[in-house]
Structures are given as structure tokens and as C-alpha cells.
């Protein structure tokens, strides 16, 4: 039978081990709390930073759009006092492609429509009257530029695209009373022209339909 001294020594060892186990458990809990707090702070900081970035990006985009709409498009030509009569005959327009004037009573569909063959100019002018931007090109335009512009048109309501072989330059953009020649799809004026003139202030009949018209 163990002596009283041996029993005390054994009890003391058990208490020491118990205290050590409890100390380690408290240390683990402290580490877990620190990790949790650190992760939480990091997540909050990331959300705040991300929110700030998104707000900043949105502000930058809005400022860019305002600037694009208020700044003149370099090299743009403008025509004023264009006739708006509906006629069912060919029209001799003073510019090519035409940007306004008498036109067919039925518009060309311009709800992101891409035409691979020439379209009646009289119908296209009616589309411009409704606030569409018309992208035109010749066989001299680079295929890559045509493809990029096609993608833009297909993602933009109130726009249309078609070949106009007898125009003066490979790539041109037209709106009612407005026209610009661009060097390629990457030309900054392409985005500016779309931003400024798709349903822009030049539109004689804003909000008029771009569907239900003539389709090729």
C-alpha cells in the first residue's frame, strides 16, 4: 500500500498535468480567437476596399460617359436642317452614307442588327431618325475591324451595321446629322460616337421603335 507521501506526490503530479492541459487549452482558445478576429478584420477590410474600388470604378465610368457625351468627336462632320419627309422613292442624298433627309416610311430594323449585304439607304436613314448609330464599311476594311465592330453592334440596341461599298473610307459611323470616319475598331472615337449618339440629343424621334421594320 502506498504511503501518504507517495499519494501526495501522485496527486500533485496529476494536478500539475491537469493545470498544464488547461493552460494549453486556454492558449489554443486565445490563438483561435486571434485568428478569427484577424480573418474577420481582413474580410471587412477587403469588402470595404472592394466596395470603394467598385464605387470608384463606377464613378470613373460615369465621368468618362459624361465627358464622351459633352466633348466633340474629333473629325466629325455635322449637317443641320435635314428634311424628314416620308417618300417611297429613291433619294439623292448629298452625303454617303446619308445621315438624314427624306426617307422611306419604314425603318430598317436597328435593334443590334448586322446586315452582310447592302441595305436601302432610305430605310437606314429612317433608323437614324429613331436614334440609331449606323456602322458602314467597304471591302477595304480589315476583317478584324469588321468583326470587332460587329460585336459592338450586336451588343448595342439602336444600332445597325451594313456594307456600303461606294463610301469614301473603309470604316464610317453615322447618326442623324452626324458622321465620322474612323481608322479601325480600336479608334477611341468609336466608343465616343456610340456613347454620344445612340439615342443621343440629335435624335429627332427618341424612343421610336427599332424593331418591326424592314429586315434583310
TrEMBL record:
Transmembrane spans: 34-55
Pfam families for the chain: DUF3105
Biased segments, Polar residues type: 1-12
Entry keyword Metal-binding: no
InterPro entries (alphabetical): DUF3105 (IPR021454)
Region feature (Disordered): 1-30
Keywords tagged on the record: Membrane, Transmembrane, Transmembrane helix
Biased composition (Basic and acidic residues): 16-28
Protein name, per record: DUF3105 domain-containing protein
Amino acid at each position: 500500500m502506498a504511503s501518504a507521501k507517495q499519494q501526495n506526490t501522485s496527486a500533485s503530479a496529476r494536478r500539475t498535468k491537469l493545470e498544464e492541459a488547461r493552460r494549453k487549452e486556454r492558449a489554443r482558445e486565445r490563438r483561435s480567437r486571434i485568428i478569427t478576429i484577424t480573418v474577420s478584420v481582413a474580410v471587412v477590410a477587403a469588402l470595404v476596399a472592394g466596395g470603394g474600388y467598385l464605387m470608384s470604378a463606377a464613378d470613373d465610368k460615369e465621368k468618362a460617359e459624361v465627358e464622351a457625351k459633352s466633348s466633340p468627336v474629333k473629325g466629325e462632320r455635322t449637317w443641320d436642317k435635314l428634311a424628314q419627309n416620308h417618300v417611297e422613292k429613291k433619294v439623292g442624298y448629298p452625303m454617303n452614307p446619308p445621315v438624314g433627309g427624306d426617307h422611306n416610311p419604314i425603318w430598317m430594323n436597328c435593334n443590334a442588327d448586322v446586315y452582310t449585304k447592302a441595305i436601302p439607304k432610305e430605310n437606314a436613314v429612317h433608323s437614324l431618325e429613331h436614334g440609331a448609330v449606323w456602322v458602314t464599311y467597304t471591302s477595304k476594311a480589315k476583317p478584324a475591324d469588321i468583326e470587332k465592330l460587329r460585336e459592338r453592334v450586336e451588343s448595342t440596341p439602336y444600332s445597325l451595321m451594313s456594307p456600303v461599298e461606294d463610301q469614301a473610307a473603309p470604316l464610317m459611323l453615322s447618326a442623324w446629322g452626324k458622321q465620322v470616319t474612323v481608322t479601325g475598331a480600336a479608334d477611341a472615337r468609336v466608343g465616343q460616337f456610340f456613347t454620344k449618339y445612340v439615342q443621343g440629343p440629335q435624335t429627332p424621334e427618341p424612343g421610336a421603335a427599332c424593331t418591326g421594320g424592314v429586315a434583310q
